[in-house]
Amino acid sequence: MSENDxxxxxxxxxxxxxxxxxxxxxxxxxxxxxxLPVCREDVSTGEPGVTVRVDPLADGGVLAEWxxxxxxxxxxxxxxxxxxxxxxxxxxxxHYENVQTCMRETIxxxxxxxxxxxxxADAHSYGKAVHVRGFDL
Length: 137
Prior knowledge:
Blueprint: H1 14-33, E1 38-40, E2 49-54, E3 62-67, H2 70-81, H3 91-113, E4 116-120, H4 123-126, E5 130-135
Parallel strand pairs: 1-2
Antiparallel strand pairs: 2-3, 3-5, 4-5
């Protein structure tokens, strides 16, 4: 336990963070070559596109995720805040989920085709992100 009486998850070592940062750069470059708009999370402008970020936790890694335009995301948040029946989701919400799922699969397939070791990230922790585990070439 820490002096604050709670445990924080362990952080990755500086060497691991350097490796992840390099891997994230390769993933960004690969995705950019396909014509997809790509940005780093730490310099995000709120524009739509693929966000590639490095998770600093020891069990984290490199994550790539599709970001929709702010107005689309805000619309979905409003729909969810108003309350929805899970058995009868509004069409706009179903569309948003479909876009997120399709873009995750697109990102995953592009990176896998280029030689990256990728998988769907844990949905509970990372939503619709792709976990970039390594580069095999």
